[in-house]
Amino acid sequence: MANIPATPAAAAVATGHRVSPSPRSSPCLPRRKAMLPSIGAAAGPPSWSSRGAAAVARAATGSDKAAAARTIINPNNVPVLSFSEVAERLDTFQASGARNQNYMAMYSSIFGGITKDPSAMVIPIDDHMVHRGHGVFDTAAIMDGHLYELEQHLDRFLRSALMAKIPLPFDRSTIRSILIQTVSASNCTQGSLRYWLSVGPGDFQLSSSGCANPALYAVVIESPSLQVPAGCKVVTSSIPIKSPHFAVMKSVNYLPNALTKVEGEENGAFTSIWLDDEGFVAEGSNMNVGFVTADKELLMPCFDKILSGCTAKRVLTLAEQLVADGRLSGIISRNVSVQEGKSADEMMLIGSGILVKPVVQWDDQIIGSGQEGPIAQALYGLILEDMRSGPPSVRIRIPY
User: Fold this and answer.
1) Which domain holds residue 120?
2) Is 305 a catalytic residue?
3) Does residue 69 register a pLDDT over 60?
4) 197 and 61 together in one domain
5) Which residues of 133-147 are buried (b: 16+ CB within 10 A; e: fewer)?
6) What is the reported pLDDT for 1?
7) Which of 35, 214, 34, 17 is nearest to 120 (CA)?
8) Phi, psi (degrees; rounded to nearest 5) at 72
């Protein structure tokens, strides 16, 4: 396995030091290193400021997740902070419990290594992925110490980067190696790996011509258990769908997706369903849509105008087992009208975050019997089994 490409900052990361943005910050680094072991140590209280400790104490009671922020922000006296003070306050924020997920490790090509400190999992504010949306991303599930469909997701990841005109900082095999090493360093056996390619930092201009170094980032997120695929409601989205050029590319421009998800939640639903420019069923906020017709065909919209879901494509392959045993009569991909979708025997959402989730109501229309359908449940079982014991083509063992 290839070593992670190093930068001059990589040695500092390997020793546990924060990377200093300038030589002036370097005297603060030993203080930062000494502070970390003291947090939560039995020998005495943490060696951070009393204000920071008080914020953590309040957060520990669960009384107010915003406590840390209020101790930091004073609109009448905004402080100018040193690098070590910023690091301290990032630790206070992390300890406040404001984050809802466990971030186990992060790789950044900016500092050329992996960190397991969530407070250090940051990217430059002038990265064009942040202020211009010029970046792409993808994800892969971690199941029982294996990465699921990493190769398939990587293929889509690199296609998206090509469409977004993002030069690669490393070749494919090096990116793959970095991702596997990041999961290995995290010791996470159940969760997900998210990774991004950006044109990189450089300035706040519109053009990326001033960005000399494209950037790769990756984060491992722990998720100990999978949600039970309970039936859900969806609504038709009023948010304009992305044009096909951007819909088939997995870019970080997910504001339409986020608003589509929020719109569903505001209407008491799990998510909203997009229709394409011709009025046919397209996709959900970040998942594909599938149906079971009255003739027991598994029906899915074509991928020419929507994101080609890796999980959806794998489900189509696994569904052949249900054709073989007679539970399905066939598998087809074509345009689906709203009327046909709402009158289907079953409807389901398919994506890496939910696997296969039955839909029991769309707008005011009950789908099928109004209960989780047998095909959706069977497909969920097949994809889960594939994640746990599928062939090497979809499972890569992580060398912890």
Assistant:
1) 100-225
2) no
3) no
4) no
5) ebbbbbbbbbbebbb
6) 52
7) 17
8) -90, -35
